[in-house]
Amino acid sequence: MDYRLLSKYLGIEVMLLGAAMLFSIPWCFPALGGGERFETEACLALLVTVLISLLLGGAMIHWGRGVHERFFRKEAMATVGLSWVLAALLGALPFLLSRTYRADDVPMTIPDAIFESASGFSGTGATVITDLDNPELVPRAILFWRSETHFLGGLGIMVLFVAILGQGLAGKALFRAEMPGPSKETGRSRAQHAAWAFTSVYLGLNVVLTLMLMVEGMSIFDALCHSFGTIATGGFSTYDDSVAHFHSLSIEVTIEVFMVIACTNFTLLYLLALAKPGELLRDPEFRVYIGIIVLATALTIGWGMRHGDFVSFGEALRYTSFQVVSILTNTGFATHNFSEWNEFGRGLLFLLMFVGGCAGSTSCSVKVIRHMVFAKAMWLELERVYRPNVVRPLLIGGKPFGDVDLRRDVIVYFAFILFIFITTWLLLDALEPDAAWVVHGHARHEKLIDCASGIGATLNGVGPGLGTIGAVENYSHFQPTSKLLFVVLMLLGRLELYPLLVMLIPGFWRSG
User: Fold this and answer.
1) What does the pLDDT look like over 118-146, one tens digit per residue?
2) Long-range contacts of 467-471 (CB under 8 A, 24+ apart)
3) CB of 463 within 8 A of CB of 476?
4) What is the C-alpha separation between 485 and 365, in angstroms, rounded?
């Protein structure tokens, strides 16, 4: 491991992150943020954090100056993994230095701030803040920074880094480490070109959605924050009741459509922008993705109407379609308290947490293509039981997809997800006292399911879970240790496990 080279690239990332914080400072002014006075503490907190980032980044770059740039896979993975850890830590400083409160007379602690920062960068959208509407507790500039972390983390910190600076072979390695998954599109083109294509689509979607939301009645502050949360599939809102605050069907439909778009492979969206719609319509993953949305919505409506969760079909369609899309795409916006739905509907939403959108999108979770490969691989293995001499290729959309190594990678990934989910679920259940559920008016036995949904929601970047962390609740009541556990899960899910897991292996850090 070349530590000086690692320090150089991390230093550049830290300085870029500090510079990005400057865009949150104008919202300290009442004319933009909508507060009643200039937010002095928030402004100073952001400026101090910017200064810390620039000094730290400059020192790291200085130590790494003149190093021979032999950038290998280990350095790329270490850079990506550590960059997200540094982003979560530095991103937490504005919450602490501005004395942001998570509730009346309850200032945010270090675990609270790290949780909120990691949730923003990872696109999870889980929160510990109970009163977003009160600028005396949460300054508007800090609220904007909270949403800006979605914007920065949406495509990936390193993707934006590569798009801006390029960095040749190092950029290619960083791009591949940042965008893991079974469908990479960087092999045939330069990493910087691919990063710019992804970034252009990302920026374009944010601009279009922001303008549409403003036309539909949102202020520029709310429009930008909700656009960041939608396109990054993050889910941070500027209000406690999320998108439901606006009581607008048009806003809900607009956000729902853009959630679907944001979880479509950005390569296909780029080709669509180049007037090649056929590539999108022929893509097997996209067709399955849309099919899952339609089927899950139909099932949820059917059982919801049967159990009296909705007063009319129109209401059922409005709320279930939005929540199905929100959970499947791992965005986490809410327009209805789905914790009050029937058990089948809630169970279906829980399963959708582990699906996610398409590869090459801003979605977290497992991704549709991995489910397709896994299902095909299991079918082929089942056939081998009674036809051991038959060798068939794995077909996706009628065409061979990958090789034996790809099947192994997908199956191992599922195994890792299952192992991490089970072990952290039991750990969280052990850490949390039963009394916390009784205080919230819930039965003790509900803790097991609530903890499972919390693990699933943070590991898959969804945000809200079930019960005490449902659509109208938050994570503020968890123990500090539990919040840090959620931080690890959020980063693991956003980076698709490996860039962080390999950092736990001592041999990874040795030279050679």
Assistant:
1) 999 999 999 999 999 899 999 999 999 99
2) 467/339, 467/442, 468/436, 468/437, 468/440, 468/442, 469/126, 470/337, 470/338, 470/339, 471/242, 471/323, 471/334, 471/336, 471/337, 471/338, 471/339
3) no
4) 17
d(CA 123, CA 74): 25
Q: Can you give the length of the chain in residues?
A: 512
The secondary structure of 331-349, three-state, reads CCCCCCCHHHCCHHHHHHH
CA distance 458 to 480: 15
Q: What percent of the chain has pLDDT over 90?
A: 61
Q: Does residue 511 sit in helix, strand or coil?
A: coil
Structure-block tokens of residue 212? 């549409």
> pLDDT value at position 173?
55
Q: What angle do CA 337, 231, 204 make, to 5 degrees?
A: 150
Helical ranges in 216-265 per DSSP H: 220-231, 249-262
- How far lies 447's CA from each of 337, 345, 443, 455, in Å? 19, 19, 8, 12
d(CA 92, CA 244): 27
| Helices 157-165/168-178 angle, 10° precision | 160
- Asked whether the beta carbons of 255 and 242 are under 8 A apart, the reply is no
CA-nearest of 64, 132, 146, 138 to 99 is 138
Which backbone phi and psi does 399 adopt, to 5 degrees? -125, 145
Strand partners, 400: 395
Residue 195 token pair: 């990063």
Dist CA 90 CA 16 (whole Å): 12
Helix segments in 98-126, DSSP class H: 110-121
What average pLDDT does range 54-64 have in this prediction? 92
* 286-293, long-range: CB < 8 A, 24+ apart: 286/358, 288/368, 288/371, 288/372, 289/263, 289/264, 289/357, 289/358, 289/368, 290/260, 292/328, 292/352, 292/355, 292/368, 293/260, 293/324, 293/325, 293/328
Q: Smallest Cα–Cα separation from 144: which of 43, 241, 224?
A: 224
Question: What is the token pair recorded at 260?
Answer: 């679907």
User: Is residue 86 within 8 Å of 14, Cβ to Cβ?
Assistant: yes
**Cβ atoms within 10 Å, residue 66:** 6
Residue 506's pLDDT is what?
A: 86
Tell me the C-alpha distance between 167 and 12, whole Å. 12
